[in-house]
Automatic annotation (TrEMBL):
Keywords: Methyltransferase, S-adenosyl-L-methionine, Transferase
Domain of life (superkingdom): Eukaryota
PROSITE patterns: SAM_MT_PRMT
Source organism of the structure: Dimorphilus gyrociliatus
GO molecular function, one term: histone methyltransferase activity
Sections of the chain in a coiled coil: none
Protein arginine N-methyltransferase domain residues: 146-311
Protein name: type I protein arginine methyltransferase
């Protein structure tokens, strides 16, 4: 599968392992809730090189199934052995959907770093839901438990100015190439790191997913209608999507952990997803914009469409 091929590059894994916000969220929750993991059976869906499996084993899990569909499963097995956890962690080199119910025990906990850009792009969410329905005990725990997507209009002067490069290339006019790049760029979502000051209005919640309750049908098509009030004068170049995840056992708020990918938090490898508008618009403080966001599932990703009334 092409999806698994994309995770057979060690540079991709280094990028994820070097993401401090990502790693700290998982490690903090598992360490602070070691009593939840002690003596339990855990499934790590999409284990990659096995770091989450190692966290769980170190926290006292009795058994960890590290499920990895890509060829990285072999390296994962080596790393598990190098760290002396082979007796606790069993690497399963399969997509979770290909594991037979009779192959393994029911599990107490599912842990997974399944999130993609804007949460849903090329994510493993549907694999996690399959694992939940097939292998998780009725009173089992999913880590993380809650995932939320947010939307806000943004001003991106740096993003827009990069096309100015083409206006003068060693004294020659390359603006036609610039226009072509601009048309391509503004015709699709972009992954950018934006700043808190780029936000023109307070973000609004697009979707909240409870992984213990969500169904495939819930996630097939997502439609949201929003009205934003601009908090300052500016120029709107697009809308930004981002997400956060809540790690919780549903009972102890003191040990909850939030992984936040917003512009207000430390940058992560997910950055933010920008939906550009074809033409920039001046906006005034307390002005408003109405928009409608469509997310339609397409395999492991979603098609994004956004309608607005800026030009009305």
């Amino acid at each position: 599968m092409d999806y698994f091929k994309s995770y057979e590059n060690l540079e991709v894994h280094r990028l994820m392992l070097a993401d401090k916000s990502r790693m700290d969220a998982y490690q903090s929750f598992i360490n602070e809730n070691a009593a939840l993991f002690s003596g339990k059976i855990v499934m790590d869906v999409g284990s990659g090189l096995g770091i989450l499996s190692l966290f769980c084993a170190k926290a006292g899990a009795k058994k960890v199934y590290a499920v990895e569909g890509s060829e990285m499963a072999k390296m994962c097995e080596t790393i598990i052995k190098d760290n002396n956890f082979s007796d606790t962690i069993q690497v399963i080199h399969k997509a979770v959907e290909d594991i037979q119910v009779s192959d393994i025990e029911k599990v107490d906990i599912i842990v997974s770093e399944w999130m993609g850009f804007y949460l849903l792009h090329e994510s493993m969410l549907h694999s996690v839901l399959f694992a939940r329905d097939t292998f998780l005990k009725d009173d089992g725990l999913i880590v993380p438990r809650i995932a939320n997507i947010y939307l806000s209009p943004v001003e991106l002067r740096d993003f827009k100015s990069k096309f100015d490069f083409w206006n003068n290339v060693y004294g020659f006019d390359f603006s036609s190439a610039g226009e072509a790049e601009r048309n391509t760029t503004f015709g699709q979502a972009q992954i950018e790191n934006i700043k808190a000051q780029d936000l023109l209005a307070e973000e609004q919640l697009v979707l909240s997913i409870d992984l213990k309750a969500a169904t495939e049908e819930d996630l097939e098509s997502i439609i949201g209608t929003f009205k934003f009030t601009f908090k300052k004068y500016g120029v709107i170049h697009g809308f930004a999507l981002w997400f956060d995840c809540i790690f919780t056992d549903g009972e102890n708020e003191e040990t909850e952990v939030t992984l936040d990918t917003s512009p207000n938090s430390e940058s992560t490898h997910w950055k933010q997803t920008i939906i550009p508008v074809p033409e920039a618009f001046l906006v005034e403080e307390n002005g408003e914009v109405n928009c409608k966001l469509y997310l339609k599932r397409d395999g492991r990703s979603y098609r994004i469409e956004l309608e607005h009334d800026l030009d009305s």
